[in-house]
Design brief:
The protein is 19% helix and 33% strand. The protein is an alpha+beta fold and 763 residues long. A hairpin with a 2-residue loop joins strand 14 and strand 15 (353-354). The longest helix is centred in the first third of the chain and has 24 residues, at 53-76. The model is unreliable at 1-18, 28-40, 427-442 and 454-462 (pLDDT under 50).
């Protein structure tokens, strides 16, 4: 059952509060005590004979250069040198541009070059059933591990076989067995490298193993500032407050504003909104206002003063946050909203239309009927905010430094996630409300070979799924090849998942394209294969204790790049107002194929790979055509099935004239006839810009778009088609009326009717 606000069990709220208190206490303890503890590394540096100190200095210079490069990369990716490099990154991090708030990573640049981890967000799609908070901030130990692995791997690329010293020295270097230990301290990073060198100079021989270098830079300070901001967001929800301030300040009873959270009218017509237009408008607000967020006391901070009413002053005051107890004159903090990463929906809505609740009080011959319109809307909003901490350290080895990480602003039905975690959401849920017992008769469930499966109860509150000590299957092996060239693929990442329960990284293929290993136990599990430059692939695989599997060769398709363009088809339809002032639609047909008006029309199109094989990382391309976009753009595809969603935005707008409809407001004697009418709307309604078309290619409308290897290899362009809704100025009288705005809900219907015409065409 669902519990309404205020009815949640007190103990649940208490446990959540205790958990938050423990987390806050940990942060306090970390900053007050742990960070002051010096690390006793215990590493030793050996004496180097005088005649070989040049070689030792050469190695130490390389250690220094590689260390600085690693620290800069670590800053650009929030504590991860390369988040998707499974050799460096000790945890599984994922990025999906089609779901930028659902996974562990988001991107500042919209691609894998700008990846940063979420230090605080709601994993998965947030809603009133999923509001748990997660963090993928790395630990100090994790970052030390990454630096050590990176140094051991990259150092030989810097020494380059000691070719620069070969005229003076004969150097035999053991590049394959370098071992590095790294310590991140308050004002420096120390590298202890075990790199065996057998040296010869003029018949004098020596062996050097231990090398040491220090990069003098306060990296830990930037990491701790990021943790401070994470803690401030957790406790104060400053990003959620910013979101609510934007909604409150820019909402009202106007189709060109955002829908209000609460308002009322009693006029005989209603104002409606489009979810697409609301998304577009709010995205524009985020682009404009997110960079204006400031942290008091940091470099570049300037208080914002405005001349206006209290509401305006309060709004601009909300753009400044007090987070730190000290002034940071050499630290600049900047906030970024990555474009097109907003997930937003306003409820209640039907399809794309956002409508108020309408209550009609029926009249009689004495009292005309009355209409009460309640504009009470609930916002579900999620978007990433990437924070850059830029510091200036002129006396260190890195004079200017950037550390980037992501936070997620998240509203669920107008409330921040902290409120939901404290039991103060509009509707909350806990699985303890359900007490379900399944009794299976002995030997009632069997595997594919007919052997009985013994079911063991397992707690759903804690997962050991990714603990390798629990991986009890037999040896599973597979081979991955390039689907086109048949060559083995090295470095294919292999992960194993069990439904929506969990997914664990299991390893990578070797130079022969092969992987072997044990896996967790799961009935109905899957193997996910991925490699940069190739489409991902998912294989159904159930595992059993002690049983292995030899899987068939898996062929991965190389990603192809092809040009994309778009054309439009206009729906021909005329609306007529009859003598009773009722609007009647005429039959619809479709016009000629033509290009979009690039100065006044914009098409936002997304093509997404679908189906089981696409797995958790489907290929997704989003491209903007026309206004503020391109005429043609490149998209990346593999042979597969796809869904296509497009929205056509008309910047010429759509105007509904004033007084285009009427209702009877006063009847004659005994209720016969009508002596007075109320005309609406008043004034005219202007949608500028107007979401006035699009297309939906999916299973329920046209069927999926199936793309083959031959089409990709033999074509230069994929031409998409979108539908533009009827021109209301052709109505009689021109402009039609409010009910014709319901055309915006009919994109699915029109796509289904004209499915042959809207399917993309290869050229």
């Amino acid at each position: 059952m669902l519990q309404k606000r205020g009815e949640r069990k007190a103990q649940i709220t208490l446990f959540v509060i205790l958990a938050l208190v423990i987390l806050i206490a940990f942060l306090i303890l970390y900053f007050a005590v742990f960070r002051r503890l010096s690390i006793e590394d215990g590493s030793e540096v050996e004496e180097v004979p005088e005649e070989f100190k040049v070689v030792s200095s050469y190695v130490e210079a390389c250690i220094h250069d590689v260390g600085i490069k690693a620290l800069k990369e670590m800053g650009m990716h929030g504590g991860y040198i390369d988040p998707l490099d499974s050799e460096l990154t000790p945890v599984l991090l994922r990025y999906n541009p089609s779901a930028p708030t659902s996974y562990e990573l988001t991107s500042l640049t919209g691609d894998e070059d700008g990846l940063v981890p979420y230090y605080l967000h709601v994993p998965g799609k947030s809603d009133y059933l999923n509001y748990r908070l997660g963090s993928f901030a790395p630990t100090i130990q994790s970052m030390e591990y990454q630096l050590s692995v990176y140094m051991s791997r990259e150092l030989p690329k810097c020494t380059r076989g000691f070719k620069e010293l070969e005229k003076q020295y004969d150097v035999d270097a053991d590049d394959d067995n370098i071992k590095t230990t790294t310590y991140i301290k308050d004002d420096k990073i120390e590298f202890y490298v075990n790199y065996e060198l057998n040296l010869t100079k003029e018949n004098v021989k020596a062996r050097i193993k231990q090398h040491h270098n220090i990069v003098r830079f306060p990296f830990k300070k930037y990491y701790e500032l990021a943790l401070n901001m994470m803690g401030a967001e957790l406790i104060s929800q400053f990003l959620e407050s910013f979101t609510l301030s934007l909604i409150s300040y820019y909402s009202g009873l106007d189709s060109n504003m955002l829908p209000p959270m609460i308002d009322y009218t009693n006029v005989p017509y209603v104002i409606t909104w489009s979810n697409i237009k609301v998304w577009t408008d709010f995205s524009g607000l985020l682009r404009s206002y997110t960079p204006t967020l400031q942290v008091v006391g940091t470099k570049g901070y300037e208080p914002i003063t405005v001349q206006g009413d209290d509401v305006e002053a309060s709004f601009y005051k909300s753009l400044s946050m007090e987070i730190f107890n000290e002034s940071l004159p050499n630290i600049a903090i900047t906030f970024f909203y990555p474009d097109n990463t907003l997930s937003m929906r306003v409820q209640p809505s039907k399809g794309d239309r956002i409508k108020p609740n309408i209550e009609v009080q029926e009249g009689n011959q004495y009292i005309p009927k009355r209409e009460f319109n309640t504009y009470k809307f609930y916002y579900d909003v999620a978007y990433p905010v990437i924070v850059e901490i830029r510091g200036y350290e002129p006396t260190t080895d890195i004079p200017e430094y950037s550390f980037l990480f992501a936070l997620e602003s998240n509203l669920i039905e107008n409330k921040g996630v902290l409120a939901w975690n404290l039991g103060l959401g509009t509707v909350d849920w806990d699985y303890s409300y359900i007490n379900t017992t399944f009794t299976f008769p002995e030997d009632s469930i069997h595997d594919a070979d007919g052997n009985p499966i013994n079911l063991k109860p397992r707690s759903t509150t804690k997962s050991l799924f990714c603990d390798e000590a629990t991986w009890l299957s037999g040896e599973v092996s597979l081979r991955a090849t390039d689907a086109k060239h048949k060559a083995p693929l090295e470095g294919v990442s292999v992960s194993y998942g069990c439904g929506d329960y969990d997914e664990c990284w299991a390893g990578i293929t070797d130079t022969a394209g092969e992987w072997k290993g044990k896996l967790p136990i799961c009935q109905g599990g899957y193997l996910a294969l991925s490699k940069e430059g190739y489409g991902s692939k998912t294989i159904m695989l159930s595992t059993q204790e002690g049983k292995g599997a030899l899987l068939p060769t898996q062929k991965l398709e190389i990603i192809r790049e092809i040009n994309a363009s778009v054309k439009k088809l206009e729906i021909q339809k005329i609306f007529n107002r009859n003598d009773d002032w009722e609007w009647e639609p005429g039959p619809d047909s479709i016009g000629l194929l033509q290009g979009i008006d690039e100065g006044a029309e914009q098409v936002i199109l997304t093509i997404t790979q679908t189906g089981f094989e696409a797995g958790t990382s489907p290929l997704t391309n989003t491209i903007i055509f026309g206004r503020e976009g391109v005429s043609k753009g490149a998209i990346k595809l593999v042979p597969s099935e796809y869904e296509v969603t497009a929205n056509l935005i008309d910047y010429n707008g759509v105007t509904i004239p004033a007084n285009c409809s009427r209702v009877c407001s006063k009847r004659g004697l005994l209720g016969i006839g009508c002596t007075e009418h109320t005309y609406f709307p008043d004034p005219e309604v202007v949608l500028d810009p107007a979401p006035w078309g699009g297309v939906e290619i999916k299973t329920s409308t046209t069927g999926l778009l199936k793309i083959t290897s031959a089409q990709l290899d033999n074509s230069q362009e994929l031409d998409f088609r979108v539908l533009k809704l009827p021109n209301l100025q052709n109505s009689v009288p021109p402009g039609a009326c409010l009910e014709q705005l319901e055309e915006m809900d009919k994109i699915d219907d029109y796509s289904r009717t004209y499915k042959a015409e809207v399917m993309p065409v290869f050229k």
